Amino acid sequence: MVQTPTLLETIALTLPRAIALRITPEQFETLAHHNRDLRLERTHTGALIVNPPTGWESGKRNSRLTGQLDRYDEANPNLGEAFDSSTGFTLPNGAIRSPDASWVSQERWDALTSEQKRTFANICPDFVVELRSQSDTLKSLQEKMLEYIENGAKLGWLLDPFNKRVEISRPNQKVEILDNPAQLSGEDVLPGFVLNLNRIWGN
User: Fold this and answer.
1) What domains are defined for the chain?
2) pTM (2 decimals)?
């Protein structure tokens, strides 16, 4: 007699911040594959981070952010590759992170092997953006930005729409803080790129 497999019931698990689930990179890849609607990250110590879906305001801001970066990428197709918030990168320290927007120079991207590009590319983007949402603490985003810089990012923007403040991170430099700027320059990392912050702030 052949028995029909019983379907397992899916239940929600609330995981307090005080409890950390640690997984290997291989386990993370499997988990991400089966949970495509979730934004998952892995710290360099192997702790799993589950980021909740954003609200409509953060979603709109992120769309305006990635839209501007995508238009720059389309106008400069040979300079590099732009990515949105669904893209994960394996940093040199072993963490798997998903910036809200990012960009990798063409030279560095082309230097990766097909294996290194598979699933979560083994590279830290040259340029990263973190856009604060209601569920984000400023401290956690600042720590994340520092991690990007320590792992090879050349320019990082932490956008805080609630205070209309920007923190700009660069290697071997003190974090620069700007209050209510109207635009940001990609400097020599993304030459010619200018982000219109009025679109992000909602002005």
Assistant:
1) 55-201 (3.90.1570.10)
2) 0.81
